[in-house]
Each structure stands twice: as C-alpha cells, then as structure tokens.
Design a protein that fits this description.
Blueprint lengths: L3 H6 L7 E4 L3 E5 L9 E5 L11 H22 L4 E4 L15 E5 L18 H4 L11 H6 L1 H5 L4 H9 L1
Antiparallel strand pairs: 1-2, 2-3, 3-5, 4-5
C-alpha cells in the first residue's frame, strides 16, 4: 500500500509544491506548526534515513539547504527547526523518509519540545577521548589513535564499514 507521500509524488494527491528535482520534493505541510512549515521528502520510497542511497541522501541534504534559504527569505524568520524521525518509537507517523522545516517566529508558534536530557552513562563514555570537552578539535583528531585502542571490537568493526 502506498504512503500518502508516494501518492503525492505520483500526482494522485495534490500539494503546494515549493521545490522539486529528480530526487526530492518539498511542499507545504497541510497541518503547519507555523507559517512556512515545509516537508522535504525523497522520491526514493524508504521508511528510514539509513535506508536511503547515498545519491538520494546527498540530494536531500542539498535540498534542505536550498529550501531553508527560501523559507527564511519568504517568511523573514531566520530561526527554525529541522525535524526528522525514524520509526514508531521515534514518533514517525508516515513511514516514508521526510524532514520538516519549521520556522520558529515566536515562543508560541513553531515546534515546541521538551528535551529530557540524561547523563552519559559509564558504558558509553569509552567512545570518546578523555579530553573531548577540554581541548580543541585539533587536539581531538591528533589523539584519535590513542583512544581508538580502547574502543570495543564491535565498534572497530562498525567504523571499518563506514
């Protein structure tokens, strides 16, 4: 069964298109959180970001920059959120990759979130060099091999595939 976004891409459902190329379509959200709220979707039909081809992912990245600039120019609002969810637990409602660009003109309009931050647990701390927050980025990259030795084998394997 086609998602609503596939039906929009195929022209079965109309939308207010603001940008389109061979890989990407951007259109105004039908239930906007603020004026200019726009959806940017790939024409490739996958539900999660990690499933996209690199070519489509790159086209999405370029489109996000282009559309964001257009929204800022059209609305005069230079503060905005870009939201993208993957999976039901992450609050994805339409299972087709999509990004929301949501202008934030005021505290009362746009995206409102509660950020439930927690402490980084000891099990995850080993992924970062001890000097992560106290030294420059240059220092971090110069010492990458030093702390790489302490990363468990499964992380080393993952990094090799990236």
């Amino acid at each position: 069964m086609k998602t609503i976004f596939e039906k929009i891409i195929d022209g079965e459902i109309q939308c207010n298109r603001v940008y389109e190329n061979e890989h990407v379509l951007a259109f105004l959200d039908v239930a906007p959180l603020s004026v200019g709220h726009t959806l940017v979707i790939p024409k490739e039909s996958v539900s999660s970001l990690h499933e996209l081809t690199p070519e489509c992912g790159a086209a999405l990245g370029e489109a996000l920059v282009t559309v964001s600039k257009a929204i800022v120019k059209a609305t005069g609002v230079s503060e905005y959120n870009i939201l993208q969810n993957n999976g039901k637990l992450a609050h994805q409602a339409v299972f087709h990759v999509h990004f929301h660009i949501i202008p934030k003109p005021s505290d009362q309009s746009g995206l409102s979130i509660v950020w439930n931050a927690t402490e980084l647990d000891d099990g995850a701390r080993y992924c970062f060099p001890p000097s992560w927050h106290t030294h420059s980025v240059k220092h971090f990259f110069c010492n990458t091999l030093d702390w790489f030795q302490c990363i468990p084998q499964y992380f080393k394997t993952l990094l090799i595939f990236l």
